[in-house]
Structure formats: structure tokens, C-alpha cells
Amino acid sequence: MPPVPPATSPRKRPVQARSRATVETILDGAAHILIRDGFDRATTTRIAEAAGVGIGSLYQYFPSKEAVVAALIDRHAAALIRVFDDLAPRLAGRPPAEAVAMIVAAATDAHRLHPALHRVLNEQVPRIGDMARIRDVSATITGHVARWIATLPLAPGRDPVILAVLVERSIEAVVHGALADGHDRLPRALHDELVTMLARHLAPDTPRQDQRISKAS
């Protein structure tokens, strides 16, 4: 008989301010342990110690370390979504190169919210089975980008949603790779090539990004 996977849902949701603060403290402790020790060496005891709470307090809210990590993924995903919710209204009326550059900047900011935690959670999400939250982040970004693309004068038959998926996944892959390589931001040449490539895919007459900057200066 296959082993039963650990529960990843919280035992209960905090309602009062004090209980919410306790849960936030537990999640902060979990982040510290995951970054320092990794998922395999993390235990509920270590998480509770790092958070400065009793193990009973942790088990009051979470049945397992997997449930704590799932809640940490939820919190981090919500922070990423807020970055793009804040960006969305500012995309209105922007030309492709300008809007794409703004999306690249937002993606970079999102990755830099807590880079060490971002990396660890990306590695552990498949093991926790919480891919739905990652899909929520991707769907939110794609939705915002698709609504902006729908305002552009696209050729007949071009689907804003498909184009938005291309933009979101291209930017995510390039930004994630650059920051994983130790860059604080995208190198300028890589940034310009990415913006030019995507902007021209949306509007073929878009000038190269580096040429646009030179003309503006």
C-alpha cells in the first residue's frame, strides 16, 4: 500500500490579530530554515524554534512541515501577484516597447522580493504539490498582459491571450535565468534584446530598444 502523502492544508485559519501574527511568525521561521537548511533537513521542531514559538502552537495551525511550506508558498505567491496587480493599470495606452520594458522590470522586482526564498520555493513546489498557486501567479500576469495586448492594433487572427502567454513565459525564463546566474538585474544588452524581440512580435515596426533609447537621449 503506497504511503499517504503529508497533509498540506492548514488545520485552521487564524482569525484574530494575535493568531495571524503567530502564523506570520511561523512562516518567517520556515523561510529561515528552508534557506539555511533546505527542505529535507527542515522539521516542524526546527521551524518552531526559529520562529520562537512552541511546537504546540505550530501544530495548532499546521499538521506537517509540508503544510507550513504550502502556506509559505501561498504568502509568497500573493506578494508576486500584488506586484503585477499594481502594474496593470499603468500599462494602459503604453506602446509595446515601453510596456514590455515595464513588465520586465516588474518581473525582476518580483524575483527580488526575497530571492533566496524565491529560489528555494521554486525548487520545492513540485514536491509539495502546490503547482496551483504557481499557475495562479502565471494566470494573473498573463491576464493583465492579455488585456493590454487586446488594446493594440493587432493583425486579424492574432489572439491576445496566446501572445500574452508568449510574453509572460519568455520574460519569466530570461529573468529567472539571469538572476539565478547571480545578476542583480538583467544585463542591459540582454534586456534590450528581450524587449525588442517581444515588442516587435507585437508590433513589427517597433525600433530596436537601444536605438529608441539613443533617440530619446
Write a structural description.
The structure is a single chain. By secondary structure, the protein is mainly α. The chain has a domain at 72-202: Tetracycline Repressor, domain 2, CATH 1.10.357.10. 70% of the residues lie in helices and 0% in strands. It contains ten helices and no strands. Helix 5 (96-111) crosses helix 8. The chain is elongated and about 60 Å long. The model is unreliable at 213-217 (pLDDT under 50).
Mean pLDDT: 86
Helical run tally? 10
The class by helix and strand makeup works out as mainly alpha
Q: State the fourth-level CATH superfamily of the domain at 72-202.
A: Tetracycline Repressor, domain 2
- Give the DSSP E fraction (strand runs of 2 or more residues): under 5%
What name is given to the CATH topology of the domain at 72-202?
Tetracycline Repressor, domain 2
Low-confidence residue ranges: 213-217
Q: Which word captures the global form?
A: elongated
Secondary-structure element string: HHHHHHHHHH
Number of DSSP-assigned strands: 0
